[in-house]
Amino acid sequence: MSGATFRFPADRGAYIRNHTWMAAIAMGGAMAVLWAMVNPYVWTGAPAGLAAIALRGWYLASEELAVVWEISDGTLSGPGHRVPLNQIEMVRTMGSYVQVITKGGDKHLIRYQADPAATKAAIERAIR
Questions:
Q1: pTM
Q2: Do residue 119 and residue 75 come from a single domain?
Q3: Structural domain count of the chain
Q4: 3-state helix, strand, coil in the chain (%, to 5)
Q5: Per-residue pLDDT of the chain (128 residues; tens, 9 = 90+)
């Protein structure tokens, strides 16, 4: 597959889904902390957790959604990373992420993939 180019852009839908899950976890976590502190206003943890993750999502969206990983000329390249395909030991999915582990133990995340299984399969085909 030398010469073939594959691109893996971040997906807005996956980004929003991930942040929805993070908000739910943050809301529950904040409420649990307030409950453990015997705070009579446990309910305030829900809007606080939601606001924190919504602000994070809004603030980072333009940066995170601009990220594109690419396979070209025997290399997997992403923002600040270049991994020769022959150095990839393992590829696995984690939610909407694809984790690439090199033979040297370095780990790289290709985040917010619309179809992480397809991204993984494309990388594995390129390795062969």
A1: 0.88
A2: yes
A3: 2
A4: 50, 25, 25
A5: 455 689 999 999 999 999 999 999 999 999 999 999 999 999 999 999 999 999 999 999 999 999 999 999 999 999 999 999 999 999 999 999 999 999 999 999 999 999 999 999 999 999 98
Residue appearing with tokens 């899950």 = 21
Would 82 be classed as within a structural domain? yes
Instruction: Determine which helix (DSSP H) or strand (DSSP E) holds 123, and give its type and residue range.
Output: helix 116-127
CA–CA dist 18, 57 (Å, integer): 9
Q: Are residues 52 and 73 in the same domain?
A: no
The letter for the amino acid at 22 is M
β 81-84/75-78 pair status: antiparallel
For residues 91 and 101, membership in a common domain is answered with: yes
CATH of the domain at 123: 2.40.50
Based on the fold, state whether residues 57 and 96 are members of the same structural domain: no
Contact in structure between 117 and 125 (CB atoms under 8 Å) = no
Last residue of a domain, one of 46, 66, 86: 66
Q: Can you read off the two tokens belonging to residue 43?
A: 């309910």
Here the tokens at position 47 are 């809007």
**Cα atoms in the 13 Å half-sphere on the side-chain side of 40:** 0
